[in-house]
Structures are given as C-alpha cells and as structure tokens.
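dude i think i finally got it to work??
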Amino acid sequence: MKTIKKPLSALLLSISFLSTWAQVNPQEGYIITLQQDTLRGIIDYRAEQRNTRQCDFKKEGTQEFVTYKPGEIESYSIPNANAFYKTLTTKIDNRDSTIFASCLVRGAMNLYRIANFMNADLFILQKNNGETLTFYEEDGTGNADRAQRRNRLVPVYNMLRDSDRATKRLWKEEINRNTMTQIVRLYNEDVVSGIPTEIFTSSGSSYQIGSGKKNRNYHFVVMGGMSYQKHTTKEGRMTNSTEFTMTGLQPKLSIGVNYNLTRIASGLYVEGFISWSRIGIKKDDVNLSYNMCTSNSFNTKLTGNDLHFEVGPAYRFGKDLKVKPLVRAGIDFNRAFGQEFEAMNISTNYANLFETYYYIDNKQFFFGYYFGIGAAYPLSKGAILLYLDYNDTGTNIPLQCFDVRIGYEF
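look at this
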C-alpha cells in the first residue's frame, strides 16, 4: 500500500501543478483605474467568459496578482492580443449588471460583446452621450419570423438611424459578431464626429475605419503655410556698414512622417519632415559701402531657397479631447541654395548683384533647432494638424523664422 501511495501522491501533485500552469496565460498589459491612472504590468488572460468577470493583474515591480472585479477599475487591455475590456453597467434581462465587456468597435458608436451569455453572444451598443442598448445575436437558423425579427431590431435601428448604409445592412443580414462589427463600422464612417474609430479583429490586429488596413504606428503628413523670416547682418561684414535687419513673409511647404511611440506613451510621437521655403527678405534705405566706395543709401534684398530636414519629438495631450494640444521640438538640418543679394543705390539707381551672398557656403548643411506648439483634430480618417513654430536655421545666413502651417495626417 505504501508503494502505491507515493507514486499516486506524486501523480496527483503533478496533475494539480499542470492544471494550474495550463490555466495561467500571462500577457503584458495595463489597467486604467477609476482615477484614470494607467498601471502597466502582467494580466492573466484566460477564457472569454472569465475575462468578463474578473481581471487578475500583477503590477510592474510586484510579485503578487491582484484580482479586480467589474467596477473596481475603469478598463484593462492586452495590446498583443488586441483585447480591450471596459467596465459597463447596463440592463441585462431587465436587471442592472456590471461586467467587463469586450470591445469590438471603439469610436463615435461603441460596440461591446459578452461571449456565450445564456448560450448566445450579447451585444451592447453605446453612444458617447451614454445612450446604451443590449441585444442578443441571432440563432443562425434563419427561421425567425420576419415580422418578429423586425420588431426585435427596431431599437437597434433607432440607435443606427443616422446612417442609411448601416440600417440597410441591419435588415438584410443575420446578427452576429462579424456583421455587427461591419454595421457599426459603416455607422462611424457616415457619422462624422471627429472621434477616431478603431475596430478590433479576432486575428489580434486592429485598423482604422475606412482604411481597410491594419492600424499603423506611423502616419504621413502634408502641410503648407507661411514663414515670417528675419535676418540681421553682422556689423562690418560689408565695409563700413552698420548692422541692419531684413525681413519678409514667404511660403513654406512640408511633407513628413509621424511615428507614434505607443509603448512609451500614447501621445508621444517622433516626427520627421522635409520642408522647402522661399527666402525673400529686404531692408530699404540702408547706409553701406562696398569695395571701399563712398557710403550711400541702398535698398537691399536677399532671395533664394531653403531646404530643411526636421527631426524631433512631439507630444499630444488629452486622450479623450476632440482637439488635442501639442508641443514639439527638435533639430533642423538646413541648406540654402540659389541665393542672390541685391543692393540698389537709391541715388544712382544702380544695382549691385552678387550671385553668392557674403554669408553663404552652398556646399554645406548646417544645424539649427525648432520648437513650437499646435493642435491635432482627429477625423474618422486621419487628422488635421496646426503647427506654430519658431525656427533658427543656424546657417551662415542665420534666419530666424516664425512659421504657421496647417496640414493633413493620413
């Protein structure tokens, strides 16, 4: 008997250990507390039904898992599994219930799902104004009475009535996870709210509505605007001349890429831009002399082109704001080309034209810097950007520029 007890005990212990190990699925994730604090760590990501009842979370730097029930935290997310669960309190079978609901679509209209609730998927539609509706998927047999089905879907129709495409598809197709995801996608495409919409797929990826592509961390940008330019000469660079300042207002065009560093912070970006601006600055009635000639009064003008390569971080504030303020800064690789400096003698109307201005070295890039503020206004597809920047080119023509640009991020 003793010889049987030891192997049997070891076997039971092994089965218990393997059972416990098999149930644990640690995944990197984060929770958002009721105070809107984001805590990162490990989440025990299990079966769908269990995930709606509790979240087992181990904070970074700790050893123990803490179990949170719905209502004790705002939400939790496992990015690698593309899973997002939010605390919702809603009427289910005429009774108020608080659960963690799995998000399928997040945007102007949110779609949540509770898998296999009473042997069928339960869907929850929720608008940003708090209006909420719960309903079940259809049984898949296609045997439902047409009039009964229409009566059952009237509340869903009323939630979606602002989109003709969504309501038409609602009547035509069977209600299940895939069709409801597509119906809410159509609604969010048609109802422009300024709120980005994200669709969560069963494959563990997400994409922005209307793009048909997986959600990217990078976005292309095109911008245009005006640059107020200022350049102060250095005293004595022209014989017997005094220091004077030339100014002008010229166009500026930019193309670039914004890369979202979501793993560090959702609002943090690295930006890279190539920009072109026209140089066009002038100063009238300047006393100067050149080549030891007698000092005279001149109207001066400097023209040319400026090419910028801007690289630096940016941060957008306000995760839930419709208009997100931003700050940005970085370094500027700059090269000026095609410059002409003209000094027109006012008394003689004789122009001195110098193809290469005395400050220029056309073969070099120079380092400058920029910093600025702005705003991002998300749309259902892309975002509108506004930048207000100060830029010091740092070239042998030290231009100080105040730029205003508006553009589109896609």
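The chain has a mean pLDDT of 77.
im so relieved honestly
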